[in-house]
Amino acid sequence: MERGTLVRWNEDKGFGFIKPEAANAKDVFIHISALKHMARKPIVGDQILFHREQQADGKVKASKANIEGVAVIATTSTSKASNRQRKNHNHRNKPSFLSKLAIPAIIAIVALSYSQYQQLNKNVVISNDDIEQTQWQLPPKQKSNTFSTQPQFRCEGGKTHCSHMRSCDEAKFYLKNCPGTEMDGDRDGIPCERQHCGW
């Protein structure tokens, strides 16, 4: 940055000229906009630190200038820009209306799904218990009553051997009730031990 002294200043129009310290340097135009961040307005005699900027018309003006010994304050535009940045930052971080609705909806769906899952598991357990009871807790086996008032079997001619019988009960019925059977070779009262009534 260059240093110079403010030699002229037009308060009404807001501009003036700086006399640079460099020897034989021409005065440099300065506008109030280059000093708007300073705590006070410039006055003739102030020491100014500045950068030169070439304009389109070839003239030189001071830019990014400071008044030596005067505090720098935040400009309105800087404050506005920082406010905009804060608003944008807050807007980005602020959850949208849809996201506010989505979170409780997702929680409700998960809770409902878990509840249904537990209910299904509960039903499955009950069903399994029923199946186990059906498989492993069968009703006690009823003793067959071969000699009921209405017998299941009747004596038929020619059925005298074990090969003619279909079950142990039928063989027992024939041995007890039908003459001429040959189904109890060892005469122990149990017929067809090898085919039907064996242990």
Brief overview:
The chain is α+β, with helices and mostly antiparallel strands. The protein contains 3 helices and 5 strands, in the order βββββααα.
Account of the protein in words:
With 199 residues, the protein is α+β, with helices and mostly antiparallel strands. The protein is 34% helix and 18% strand. The chain is built from 3 helices and 5 strands. The protein has a 5-stranded antiparallel β-sheet with strand order 3-2-1-4-5, with no helix packed on it. The longest helix is centred in the middle third of the chain and has 40 residues, at 97-136.
Strand content: 15-25%
Query: What percent of the residues sit in helical stretches (DSSP H or I)?
Result: 25-40%
- Name the overall outline: rod-shaped
Q: Catalogue the unreliable spans.
A: none
Physical arrangement of strands within the biggest beta sheet: 3-2-1-4-5
Sketch the major β-sheet: 5 strands, antiparallel
Distance between the termini: 118 Å
Mean pLDDT: 77
Number of helices: 3
Structural class: alpha+beta
- Beta strand count: 5
User: Radius of gyration, rounded?
Assistant: 57 Å
Helix and strand run = EEEEEHHH
